[in-house]
Amino acid sequence: MKIIIVEDEIRIREGICNLVERINDNYKVVAVASNGREGYRLICEHSPDVVISDILMPEMNGIEMLEKLKSEGKMPDTILMSAYSEFSYAQTAIRLGVREYLTKPVTIDELTNALSRLESESGTKDLVPESLSSLNTIIFAALNGIVDADCDMNTFLYKKYGINENTKFTIMTAYLGYYYDENAVKVKKTIEQMVSMYEEQKSIIVEMPNDMTLVTVLYDTDNQEFIERSMQDNIRKNSVSLQRVCLGMIATEGIRNIRSSYRLINSYLHWNMIFGYDVLIIFPQVTKIFAEKSVYPSEIENKMIAALYAKDKAGVLREVKRFEDYYFCGRLFNPIEVKEAYSRFIWAARETGKDVSDTDLTEAVQKNLIERIDNAKSSREMKDILDMVFGEMFKDKNNEDGIGLTVKKTIKMIHDFYKDGITLDEIAGRLNITPEYLSAQFQKEMGLNFSSYIRNYRIGKAKRLLVESNMKVYEVAKQVGYQDSKYFSRVFRQVTGQKPDDYRKAKR
Fold first, then answer.
1. Less packed terminus of the chain by CB within 10 Å, N or C?
2. CB distance 284 to 316 below 8 Å
3. Rounded CA gap, 288 and 293, in Å?
4. Which of 483, 472, 484 is nearest to 84 (CA)?
5. 216 vs 261: CA distance, rounded Å
């Protein structure tokens, strides 16, 4: 089988060549190109069996190259490679007849399977390409609004999966927030076990790293009330495994409504900060909640300000804890009002901090705070925001004076294994203590929680790599323990107020 590789980054291009040669002796790379224009010329010259192409390239991108070949009747079997951020090209790829779609970094198993499918299906073309036509990928594309439920797509879905315009779907969204990278695998396994109780129910789980969310889609659902009730029971039974996960559920019909329904239930998911992690937020029931009016605790704010002027760290943290308890003590406040109160409390602290220490938050950090408050869905996220703000006011909080042996061992393990995605549960297991005890002790002695510490440590390492090396952003992400480069970029921006590339440019 003759193969041409079109990729502008030389290391990736050479890596794909090496992978192809290792997969099968019958696979021959007959030419390589560094852009779409050169790729077009070589494809016309060699008439390959398969083209493996990147999307974003100089001079002519991969989509433009394929469109030109398609218009001239020279369209080859194609494997497109892209990052998640480029998945918006999937709809165009479908229309062009692209047979396979792989996300970077490409593994040898993924490439082997893609090439094997093309070889076994030589001469046959489906309405929708095989890798793009997996239900998981179609649902992923539908959730992101990049696939239209047109006639061909509807015909294909009905033919292969029995899904039509009236098929009933139940969408359960599991938002992990900044704990996504740490907990996604464990939470996905728990949800799979919960869904398995519906023996004949069809379902899939779609990973949405950019939204920091796992989306479970059940289809051909008959008894929505039973699903809601039994899923709520299962959530309570699995509350330990689903800690820090915000869960919501909504029913809808047809593939065309999946995105709007997903966005709708997500817009109500902030009720989780009021009800807690073990309550499933269900639409439309959530719209019928009558919240009590929130009265802003000015007395707590005044005492916090007084403690700041007195430089009484213990007093400040005591009032911060009272403020948190006021809003998350079981009272039924509207989460929007809670967010407004947090903004007011933080900005009061900020103005006082300017007077006390003549320092202020940068514009980027201020914008970051506003975005984090707006996007927060859980009480834990709101508490993390206060940790970040008041941590900046007490720079000596990480001083090792007074730090016990358990926390010191924890810090050493974080520093040794941060690349491997080590978790609080794993460290607690090695120390023969409970995760709950370790979490509380770490927070008490370090002044911030475990997840914030390991996130900040990873981002600190990433900053150094961005400035001191020429590694690509996705390589930096992998080096510091993030498998998804776009998720890494989002976390990096949340911590620093800048995208990784912008940070690199500013520091060089």
1. C
2. no
3. 15
4. 484
5. 13
* Contacts of 8 by beta carbon, 8 Å cutoff, 6+ apart: 34, 35, 54, 56, 57, 58
Confidence of residue 449 (pLDDT cuts 50, 70, 90): confident
Question: How would DSSP label each residue in 330-377?
Answer: S--B-HHHHHHHHHHHHHHHHHHHHHHHS----HHHHHHHHHHHHH--
Contacts of 13 (CB under 8 A, 6+ apart): 5, 7, 32, 34
Q: Is 92 within 8 Å of 63 (Cβ atoms)?
A: yes
What tokens appear for 277 in the block? 């992690």
Q: pLDDT for 67-101, tens place per residue?
A: 999 888 888 889 888 764 445 566 567 667 776 77
The CA distance from 285 to 299, in Å, is 35
CB 478 within 8 A of CB 76: no
DSSP, res 292: B
Pairing state of beta strands 213-219 and 168-175? antiparallel
SS3 204: strand
> How far is Cα 273 from Cα 335, in angstroms, rounded to an integer?
7
On the 0-12 / 13-18 / 19+ scale of CB atoms within 10 A, 338 is: buried
| Closest among 424, 438, 339, 346 to 392, alpha carbons compared | 346
Beta strands in 283-332 (DSSP E): none
Strands 202-208 and 168-175 come out as: unpaired
Distance CA 482, CA 133 (A): 28
Domains of the chain: 2-133 (3.40.50.2300), 162-288 (3.30.70.270), 298-393 (no CATH), 398-507 (1.10.10.60)
Residues in CB range of 282: below 8 A, 6 or more apart: 228, 248, 249, 250
Both tokens of 141, joined, read 């594309």
Is residue 206 within 8 Å of residue 200, measured between CB atoms?
no
| Nearest alpha-carbon partner for 412 in 427, 402, 399 | 427
Query: Torsions phi, psi of 179, nearest 5?
Result: -100, 5
Q: Which residues, 6 or more positions from 395, have their beta carbon under 8 angstroms from its beta carbon?
A: none
What's the pLDDT tens digit per position in 393-419? 665 544 445 577 888 889 989 998 888
What residues form DSSP beta bridges with 214? 174, 207
Question: What's the one-letter identity of residue 432?
Answer: N
